[in-house]
């Protein structure tokens, strides 16, 4: 017998899918934080943008875990365009890494030096070194997938999990 609220309920949706989505988002953010702070990888502007869908997914997953019935289902439906955005951001970034198109972000382009004194140029420098968006980071030696490509594959897998949960919830709700 399943505990109330954790199995398939009246709305066909348990708390499990929401918890899984929140954990999936936290895992993606955790790997990014580990690569940045643990391995010393410097993220580019597109890398920082790619983290936003995962943050939103964590929030939606927590709301789905706390909601009941159709509210949980609605949070899963809201997660679909979020993961599509994650896949899209990854595809754009992979294209930039491969040289297929230029980065849409101005911070990924080469700096423009303006005339002025040396002190003025030093004062205009960013506090944190910038990383060009076309320089991929590889986490696993010998694997020709950049972190960006792995992020896109992971986002597509999470999207499939969401679709499975929505389909399963729809089928069990008909019984």
From TrEMBL:
Membrane topology note: Multi-pass membrane protein
Has the keyword Transmembrane helix been applied to this entry? yes
InterPro entries cross-referenced by the UniProt entry: DiS_bond_form_DsbB/BdbC (IPR003752), DsbB-like_sf (IPR023380)
Pfam families found in the cross-reference section: DsbB
Q: What keywords were assigned to this record?
A: Membrane, Transmembrane, Transmembrane helix
Q: What is its main location?
A: membrane
Q: Does the keyword Signal apply?
A: no
**Superkingdom classification of source:** Bacteria
Q: Where in the cell is it found?
A: Membrane
Membrane-crossing residue ranges in chain numbering: 51-67, 74-96, 152-169
- Protein's UniProt name: Disulfide bond formation protein B
Q: What is the lineage of its organism?
A: Bacteria, Pseudomonadati, Pseudomonadota, Alphaproteobacteria, Acetobacterales
């Amino acid at each position: 017998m399943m505990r109330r609220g954790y199995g398939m309920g009246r709305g066909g949706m348990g708390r499990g899918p929401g918890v899984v989505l929140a954990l999936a988002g936290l895992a993606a953010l955790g790997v990014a934080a580990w690569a940045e702070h643990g391995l010393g990888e410097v993220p580019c502007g597109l890398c920082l943008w790619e983290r936003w869908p995962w943050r939103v997914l964590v929030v939606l997953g927590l709301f789905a875990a706390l909601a009941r019935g159709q509210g949980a289902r609605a949070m899963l439906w809201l997660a679909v365009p979020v993961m599509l955005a994650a896949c899209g951001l990854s595809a754009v970034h992979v294209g930039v890494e491969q040289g297929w198109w230029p980065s849409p972000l101005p911070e990924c382009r080469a700096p423009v030096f303006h005339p002025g004194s040396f002190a003025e140029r030093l004062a205009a420098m960013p506090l944190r070194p910038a990383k060009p968006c076309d320089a991929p980071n590889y986490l696993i030696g010998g694997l020709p997938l950049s972190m960006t490509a792995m992020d896109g594959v992971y986002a597509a897998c999470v999207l499939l999990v969401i679709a499975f949960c929505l389909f399963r919830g729809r089928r069990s709700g008909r019984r």
